[in-house]
Amino acid sequence: MSEAISLTPPLSTDDVERLKIGDLVSFTGVIYTARDAAHKRLVELVDKGEELPFDIEGAVIYYVGPTPARPGEAIGSAGPTTSYRMDPYAPKLIELGLKGMIGKGNRGDGVLEAMDKHKAVYFTATGGAAALISRWITSCEVIAYEDLGAEAVHRLEVKDFQVVVANDCHGGDLFSEGIEKYRKD
Description:
Elements: E1 5-7, H1 13-17, E2 24-33, H2 36-47, E3 60-62, H3 90-95, E4 100-103, H4 109-118, E5 121-124, H5 130-134, E6 137-144, E7 153-167, H6 174-182
Parallel strand pairs: 1-2, 2-3, 3-4, 4-5
Antiparallel strand pairs: 2-7, 5-7, 6-7
């Protein structure tokens, strides 16, 4: 496997455009968490013309509902959740400047079209590795929707957070191309 590309959010369009499917990326800096209930509220804020609880421009959102931290740890288990549940909301956030999303599983056509048009990227994190992933998170703070518990919006500080580019802004799709690569005629 090739060496990881180191990135520090917020991401620029140049950062996104240089990424290709299969690239290993290592994030150090701030990323945010949000799942479907939080995404719904974020889009409702936008529709009302209100400000989001964090700067969406160049942001990376990790689709995770972390478990509570044990004493002395920043966070509990923090494995990715299935991304398609965010598909009804992601295009609007991408249009507003969201540059990266981290989760697991395929994305719908509307998300892929928004990624192409607005230059965003979808990363996949390894499911089943929640305890390992939590070691890359150095701090965790709820910044919005505390009533949602684990699904609240969190501000995470991460160091060497490893992900793989699953969908790039050039139309590359690791899921379909990966399957095709190993398909027998």
